[in-house]
Amino acid sequence: MIRLVRPVLPTALADRLPGLTAEIEESAQRTRTARALWKRAVVRRNVHAPLRRLLEGMAPGFQRCMYCGDSQGTDIDHFEPLSLNPLRTFDWLNHLLACSTCNSNLKRDRYPVDADGTPLLVDPTTEDPFDHLLLTLSLGVYVARTAKGAATIDVCGLNRPVLTQGRVHARRVVLMCLNRWTDAQARDARDEMREAVLTMQGQPFADVCQAMLRLALSPGADRVFKDTPWALDVLRNGDLRGELLA
């Protein structure tokens, strides 16, 4: 999971949403009305489609799930579930792109809150997941830094084996790309340098590359990269960081 920037809705789309919310608010059975509206054909055509295009554009990699970062995002997920707050059904700030595994099989209607009612799930569009989650690169495992991090790991199943193994593989890919970028830089082969960057940006598990960039500047960087000390200089290169963090 990485930090994502949510764009402003186009005016035409933004103008459609308040009327749908008002229809839910006026209903005596708000949840039922919200579900019916969400499934309405004209809504799927005029609201779902443009919302999905926007979410795909802000998703990591090639339209990857905003929770696991692995599978393609196929669903528009309601971060705060429709069943718990139907009035947020058409709230743009409540929409994320998710794969069916994260959305339908794991998260579902789960939305833990603390004793004060504060949500305990990380929203990658409003906060930095790395404030709550620490990625152990060698194992591909997330460790919670906060209660919110622990709840997010649990609800989204962030440490299921297919993800931890995928992150370990992604780390190998990033290291190979860093090596390729370094070699191309020495030869001033700009096209090859750009190809290495595009490979890192486009692969699943964008969180692995982002974590490596951050950890390279951390006080314990020498320990984290003790098996690949050469990678530290590359990850600290300003030109490369500028491209990968853009």
UniProtKB/TrEMBL annotation:
It comes from the Bacteria. This is HNH nuclease domain-containing protein. It comes from Saccharothrix ecbatanensis. Residues 50-104 form the HNH nuclease domain. One of its GO terms (molecular function) is nucleic acid binding.
